[in-house]
Amino acid sequence: MTRVVTADHSRTWSPPGPVDMRAVVGLHRRGAGDPAFRYLPDGSLLRAVHTPDGPGTLIITPQGGDFLGRAWGPGSQWLLEQMPGLLGADDDPSSCPVHHPVVGDWLRRARGLRIGRTDRVWEALVPAILEQKVVGVEAFRAWRYLVRRFGEAAPGPVPDVWVPPAQRDWADIPVWDWHRSGIEPVRMRTIRGATQMDVERHADKLTVLRGVGRWTEAEARARAVGDADAVPVGDYHIPSIVGYALIGEKVDDAGMLELLEPYAGHRYRIIRMAERHGVRAERRGHRMSKRDYRAF
């Protein structure tokens, strides 16, 4: 239940065009039980963030074509200043070229889909590492465990919401808690190693980190810096989704890159629209299996 608590700060933002809040910001939710993200009964959404100024909670409420932002905690002002970027204020979907009638149809259907940014690279990088080569439910389980155990209660009116740990704190998580979260040593070492780099200043150099490849970098950059051209090469599903949506057949990474090449600068946008509006092939064959390293 939401308690009536006056926000520390608030603002109303009028976007330059249509914004589908759930399509834009929902990308940052890590599973239905994400402790740092909540859809509220009144149509608002909530995010708990460790900002440069400290922990903060942001609630965004659609109001006609505008958006009301209310924020709590030391990071409240930062969150409100960043809110337009989160909702895609700096993105320009109209500049996307149309080389295929399907893409033109997607752009019409996805008028409110913008590529927003959080300006928090670390909070995009950690979940991306957790999601490497595993099914989502496994990664989401680990995220829930680690944020609840090592994060802090979020300020504001909604109970049982947690701010993810600051970058420096991830290095201090004991080995046994990584194990209890279901994370094996490889991903644990990748996250621990990444704590040594100022990722907020070097979002374009994430692949220098041991264990961070093109897929992880693209997943983090798309969310943190609003990179509309990020391509998660190596994804288990995306090449097939793009291939089937554009030419009616599955392709591999090389085929996907060839199909996306005419849309340079907007390749991630094409992927997002294919995921949301593209026709998919019927699922057949083996699926990735869920593993539980806690039993090992």
From TrEMBL:
- Quick one: a GO biological-process term for this protein? base-excision repair, AP site formation
Give the range the annotation lists for the signal sequence.
none
Q: Known Gene3D superfamilies for this protein?
A: Hypothetical protein, domain 2
Q: Which InterPro entries match?
A: Alkylbase_DNA_Glycosylase/TA, DNA_glycosylase
Q: Where are the transmembrane segments?
A: none
Origin superkingdom: Bacteria
Q: Which key words are in the record?
A: DNA damage, DNA repair
Identify the species of origin.
Answer: Gordonia soli NBRC 108243
- Report the GO molecular function annotations: alkylated DNA binding; DNA-3-methyladenine glycosylase activity; DNA-7-methylguanine glycosylase activity
Q: Tell me what this protein is called.
A: 3-methyladenine DNA glycosylase
Known SUPFAM superfamilies for this protein?
DNA-glycosylase
